[in-house]
Specification:
The chain is an alpha/beta fold. The chain contains ten helices and ten strands. Helix 1 packs across helix 2, helix 2 packs across helix 3 and helix 4 packs across helix 5.
Length: about 325
């Protein structure tokens, strides 16, 4: 029987308030996009879940189509939750999303009220939950009126099926519109989820300022650029790495000679700081004080601890920030 560590809230990852809400999120959140599907090592996945919780990581980020096949990450998480964490549900923040293709036909994709509600009901069944803490519109859908999408999110909160709602990957102008509609509906947007890393900084100019102006938190995904910002690819593409797999989003052709040169330069700075490249990449994201949390996706307990150790050194000199920016 799993018994969590009694010290899980002391000297661990730390917490930040999410926007202007009273909800605190751990600085590092565990993402289940990869490594929790039916094709993965479920025993190691369960060990990671327990280890994360023991270290104060209380937020677990999912989506309807996470895992291979779609839905398997939620289903496996639900089993682990029931077997190990049933007594600790109120200490957890569980988020899920819908917006991308999930099943065939006109009602299994997009951002219509029909799809979002059907997807949430399916997610709750897979995870064996009565509600989720955060439900996201996973993407902006130009074919659905934004009022319809935001109305669906608001009604999920009012029906008690989600405590908070958020949006992910919306362009800045549509995000502002979403914030306004949700606020007028009496269900303000809690959080914006977007891609953010040393190699992907687009959100700094418009998305982050808009979130801050509207009292919305920000959580970054892919802070290690699908593993590129690690020492894995400094000398080629190892077997069983994400780039070597036939499924997933990181492809071999993305590991170009030009990228490897940049990674080696970044790695040199990380070594000067006494960090691995992955640790420096995670720490760097927090130089933006508007970042509430980062979603990490790990494949082992060892990798999870390495990521947590990034929090030991979050300070960057102006010279280091300049050099990293130049690379």
């Amino acid at each position: 029987m799993y018994i969590p560590s009694e010290s899980r809230y002391t000297d661990t990852v730390g917490y930040n308030f999410c926007g202007k809400s009273g909800l605190q999120l751990p600085r590092l959140s565990l993402g289940l996009w990869h490594n929790f599907g039916d094709v993965d090592n479920i025993e190691e996945a369960e060990r990671m879940l327990k280890y994360a919780f023991d270290k104060g990581i209380t937020h677990f980020d999912l989506a309807n189509n996470y895992g291979t096949p779609f839905g398997s990450a939620e289903r496996n998480f639900g089993k682990m939750l029931k077997e190990n964490f049933a007594a600790y549900r109120d200490e957890m923040i569980i988020s899920t999303k819908a917006g991308h293709e999930m099943w065939p036909g006109p009602y299994g994709d997009g951002s219509s009220r029909k799809y979002l509600f059907a997807s949430l009901e399916q997610s709750l069944k897979r995870m064996q939950l009565d509600y989720v803490d955060i439900f996201y519109s996973h993407r902006y859908d130009e074919n659905t009126p934004i009022e319809e999408t935001m109305g669906a999110l608001s009604d999920m909160v009012k029906q008690g099926k989600a405590l908070y709602v958020g949006i992910s990957k919306y362009p800045e102008d549509k995000a502002r519109e979403a914030y306004r509609i949700l606020r007028e509906n009496g269900t303000p947007c809690l959080i914006f989820q977007g891609r953010y890393s040393i190699l992907s900084r687009e959100i700094e100019t418009e998305v982050l300022p808009a979130a801050t102006e509207n009292g919305v938190g920000f959580i970054g995904f892919s802070p290690l650029a699908q593993g590129m910002l690690s020492d894995k690819y400094l000398n080629g593409i190892p077997e069983n790495s994400r780039a070597a797999l036939s499924y997933g989003f990181l492809k071999k052709e993305q590991i170009t000679e030009e990228i490897v040169i940049r990674l080696k330069k970044l790695n040199a700075i990380a070594l000067e700081r006494g960090q691995t490249l992955a640790q420096m990449a995670l720490a760097w994201c927090f130089h933006q004080q508007r970042v509430t949390s980062l979603i990490i996706g790990t494949s082992s307990v060892k990798q999870l601890q390495d990521n947590i150790d990034a929090l030991k050194n979050l300070h960057f000199s102006n010279d280091e920030l300049w050099r990293i920016g130049e690379i």
